[in-house]
Amino acid sequence: MTKSNIYPIGTPGEPWGAAEIEAWRNQQSRQRRYDVDIMPRIDALAGRYDRVVYGELDYAGETYPLLALRDRSFAPHLPTALVTGGVHGYETSGVLGALTFMETAASDYAGKVNLLAIPCVSPWAYERINRWNYDAVDPNRNFRPDGPAREATALIELIASVQSPFLMHIDLHETTDTDASEFGPARAARDGKVNDLELIPDGFYVVDDSANRQPAFQQAIIAAVESVTHIAPPDDNGEIIGSPVVAHGVIEYPLQELGLCGAITGARYTTTTEVYPDSPRTSPEECIEAQVAAVRAAIDFALANP
Predict the structure, then answer these.
(1) Of the candidates 225, 87, 93, 63, which has an alpha carbon nearest to the alpha carbon of residue 156?
(2) 3 in a domain, yes or no?
(3) How many domains does the chain have?
(4) Catalytic: which of 127, 151, 198, 274?
(5) Alpha helices (runs of H) in 10-122, residue ranges in sequence order
(6) Is residue 18 part of a domain?
(7) Which residues contact 249 (CB under 8 A, 6 or more apart)?
(8) Active-site residue 274, yes or no?
(9) Fewer Cβ close by (within 10 Å): the C or N end of the chain?
């Protein structure tokens, strides 16, 4: 899908200042509840895993504990795997996929891998169904220790505290129609740039790290997900969202250079999943199942190829 949209905030060609950010913020409203939807499910898993509070957000008096689940005992002889969801809070199947994996499948890996899961990295954005945080900052372009997004810096601090080296990190995302209709135009307006129309791919795909290519790992994930939902084809230019398709359902980004979440562990195996929940060929439940299948395939491959 493509859609041209002149964003209603700001002056075309001029980056936003404090007044425009405040105007944007005033348009955001709480549409769902982190403390109702997500926290009770994390709390319910505390009988099996350590529930870790690794930080807190405080936005205009609204506070959000940042929560992780980790194996009670990190065995030094085992590899460590990280599962993250909700870096972009509006990408629902990433949040629910991480939770569902922990609820239904994580126990299969007991004694095989040290698991650390952060189901909802950006709870304020989860509640507003938004890509950005309270400050109109995209956490997933700001994963660096001195960055402006507390969602990102708190997670970096948590990762730095883990003593065991990471073998695998899977970061669960979605690509939605609102990327073209809302978030692309908002980003262009915020930055004082021209909005480039974006073609939203119909289907699942993954993003490899161009600085650490792992093609067999990516294809193992695609093969597993293909039994659950359809894989995004390349567009007429052989691309997905402006990046060349390097293999079936696979594109590449320089993760560290772009400040993306997938770069924070230095793991051998990293991937970012992208589900398309707006497709008439899928459902919310199928999108969650696809995320769970991706997590399982990623851990299975990493363990088989350490």
Answers:
(1) 87
(2) no
(3) 1
(4) 274
(5) 18-27, 34-37, 39-44, 92-104
(6) no
(7) 203, 204, 205, 206, 218, 222, 225, 226, 231, 232
(8) yes
(9) C
In single-letter form, the type of residue at position 262 comes to G
What's the CATH code of the domain at 212? 3.40.630.10
Residue 46 lies in a domain: yes
Summarize pLDDT for 55-94 with one digit per residue, the tens: 999 999 999 999 999 999 899 899 999 999 999 999 999 9
Give the torsion through C-alpha atoms of 93, 96, 97, 98, to 10 deg. 130
Residue 29 CB neighbour total at 10 angstroms:
8
What is the helix (H) or strand (E) element at residue 152, kind and residue range?
Answer: helix 150-161
If you count them, how many residues does the chain have?
Answer: 306
Full-model pTM: 0.96
Q: Is the Cβ–Cβ distance between 93 and 86 less than 8 Å?
A: no
Query: What does the block give as tokens for 90?
Result: 């509006």
Alpha-carbon radius of gyration of the chain: 18
Comparing C-alpha atoms, which of 84, 212, 207, 209 is closest to residue 154? 84
Average pLDDT per run of 10 along the chain, which is 306 residues long?
A: 68 96 97 98 96 98 97 92 98 98 97 97 98 98 96 98 95 96 95 90 98 98 98 97 97 97 97 97 97 98 97
Parent domain of 97: 23-304
- DSSP states of 59-73: ETTEEEEEEEEE-SS
Reference 234, options 223, 221, 250; nearest CA is 250
